[in-house]
Protein 1
Amino acid sequence: MLTASYAKINLFLELIGKLPNNYHQVNTILCSIDLFDLLNYELLESPEIILTCNIPSLVSTSNLVYKVASCLKEQFNIPAGIKIHLEKHIPVSAGLGGGSSNAANCILALNEIWQLNLSRTKMHKIASQFGSDINFFLEGGTAKGENRGEIIIKLPPILLNNILLVNPGLELSSAEAYKLAALPKKQEQLKFDPSNLIGSCFNRLESGIRSAYPVIDNIINTISNFGAKIAMMSGSGSTCFGIFDSKDDLIACQQYFDQKGFWTYATKTINISPR
């Protein structure tokens, strides 16, 4: 079974407070984009789980794909094994949800391959054990994430073209991004208004990262200078994105960053349901 595992961008991310488990409580708007990894699943008669990847450093028992497969195999006493090949195209630790998307893809695929007959509710419960973004990728499209991000509310699709992703090759952990963020007072908290998209796009994590990493600040300023109507960081970074009215402006901006040696990708939001 060959499957696509789509990335996301956050159009909005606000911090509401701290939860008892010390996670941040968030209000975020996520959109699937047409950048994706590929995962190929091959059923094995022998009981082992084999993970391969075009990036050798990701072949590890700590990879979320391996963790999810191991959990499902053990929890449901599956005698058969599985070989999973992960072909990465989404940058790693980059605010695009690549690892979380891969984990959700694994839940959906193994539910089918191993005939687990899991309900949507059960899949969401399993997903929430492994991370905050995985639940979104079980649904895809456009959604609001609440609590620590694992409570997903589907929204009408926000379809945007001419989006440029720019990544400087800097891997940032979510833990560091949240540590650098200042928690706003209740009266300072912002809300997302889909009728005022340009005015609503915001990322509370961005300010701390821009201060700590001048390269991120420079990328966002440069994207704006090339004419983007929105220029911001996605999730916990380090990928930044610009949304352009003009395809020519996007191409000019992309060529500039390509010449600098940065990773870039021209994309759009998509309305999908993984399965």
Protein 2
Amino acid sequence: MSNTIYPCLWFDGKAKEAAEFYCSVFKNSRITQENPMVVRFELDGIQFMGLNGGPQFTFSEAVSYVVECADQQEIDYYWDKLTADGGQESMCGWLKDKYGFSWQIVPEILGRLMSDPEKGQRVMQAFMKMKKFDIQTLLDA
């Protein structure tokens, strides 16, 4: 396929503000193009488009982005940055940022831990009680 596929995020007049915020959170990120209607940006090499579409539509948890983290320090960093200034914590590593967009901040090892035939169920029970993931608690489950 010769076409590039990337998400378009609908904002109520805050596409550039949101793009600047996301670029400040994720390494190797930049705004690549902008006009009054559309802002194109990259987050660590992944292309996005922000659209100043108006108040008709809002985000829901039906779509979220997953950020796999190597360690607790990364989890803490992304959790703190994305919940700042009006973001909301949810359960099981989910949160909404200040624009209402949903993110899942998860440890890279989660899939492996859940696949372990002896520990998988205990790991799932442990993280079902968490908001922000605690890697050590998962390892100890």
